[in-house]
Amino acid sequence: MGRIYIDGKFVGVHDNLVALREELIQKRRKGILPNRTNIAYIEERDEIIVNLSSGRARRPLVVVENGKSKLTKEHIDKIEKKELKWKDIVDKHIIEYLDAEEEENAYVAIDEKSITKDHTHVEFDSLLILGVTASLLPYPEKNRGDRLNYGARMVVQATGIPYQNYHLRDDTTGQLLDYPQVPMAQTSSVVSSGLKSHPAGQNLVVALMPFYGYNIEDAIIINRASLNRGFGRSYFFRTYITESRRYWGGQEDELGVPDSGVRGYKSEE
What we know:
Layout: E1 2-6, E2 9-14, H1 17-29, E3 38-42, E4 47-51, E5 58-65, E6 68-69, H2 73-80, H3 86-91, E7 95-99, H4 100-103, E8 108-109, E9 121-122, H5 132-135, H6 145-157, E10 173-177, H7 188-192, H8 224-228, E11 234-238
Parallel strand pairs: 1-4, 8-9
Antiparallel strand pairs: 1-2, 3-4, 5-6, 5-7, 5-9, 10-11
């Protein structure tokens, strides 16, 4: 008898978890169960994990039935004509959101040409197989897979102008690049993700060459004229919270930058 868990809580047992999982998925696709439900069968432990909690990382995939994608050209044409919205194709269960656990049971095709009768889902585009951030990297076929994942992490850390009202916000920390630039080499995901209109990072001219041993390992030498023209110029914001108190006898706190001779003064660094 296999065990069943809902959001980590044990709720019961069943003698055929594979059939139960398939039944629950069909109920989700018929609208009996909410779209946020994810069902995973863990074969090693003979368990079914049902997740309904918020905060899970999930990604959309196109449903495949009988070796065919449920997202047809007719749907795409209606979306382009704005006759159909994203919510509509999700409500019609043409698209499903899978979390990490349910994705372990999915057999995802890279594109429609690769679909077989065994596949359960297909990617929207083969670009997305490593995630949206990795799809922003140009010429991925020229690099190893681990280099692409490393580059994707660098994309996440890129600095741009994250919001227009930065001078009105009170985030704990924030960064702002003075002169963000649209990448010269870009993929179609750059346009569809909005990165072309809200870029992050700058285009650099890089020379790979020895320079008297000063660029050993990961060290780099930056042209001073580029720095003077604003290369890499950015701002870092940090919000501090304090309060000004008034004491008996008329004394009160004064907020400001103390002189270097004041007791308890800390250096500018």
